Amino acid sequence: MAIRIRPAWAVSVFLCLMLAACSTSSRGRSEASTVKPDSERNAAPDFTLKDADGKSVRLSDYKGKVVLLNFWATWCGPCKIEIPWFIEFETKHKDQGFAVLGVSMDEDGWGVVRPFLADLGVNYRTLLGTDMVAEQFGGVEALPTSFVIDRQGKIASTHVGLVSKRDYENDIRTLLNSQ
Q: Which CATH superfamily is domain 33-178 in?
């Protein structure tokens, strides 16, 4: 007698197992940062992109600050989870030499990005990305992808996909406290 598994049931079981795996993988983890040692960091590629006001913004303008550079899109579910964290980080750490830079990869441009930012109350600078800039950062192939950049303009950590708020917070604190 063969057991027939219904696709909906199989998907439900798979999702439950994935959630359990994700939740247990972060339990008991140390509070260690994912920041690379200084000797292993490479310079972040400089770029110039336009913000919502049409002003040109260069990444090098932020040298001297710790920067969370986040590539995202309005249609990206995990991005929508992270953005409120980034709003909080901007508020909490901006006076310590920290900044969040969002780089929207939305093909529909500012027409979809501006209302999205307004709805979420985004308090950090957002730029409209290009494929060329994504390529400079190794070909951003998944969203979200974030780079935490030290005060010297070097990439200290890279996060692809949704990672925990705690991981970001640890990286930011490590860099703010070490330099």
A: Glutaredoxin (3.40.30.10)
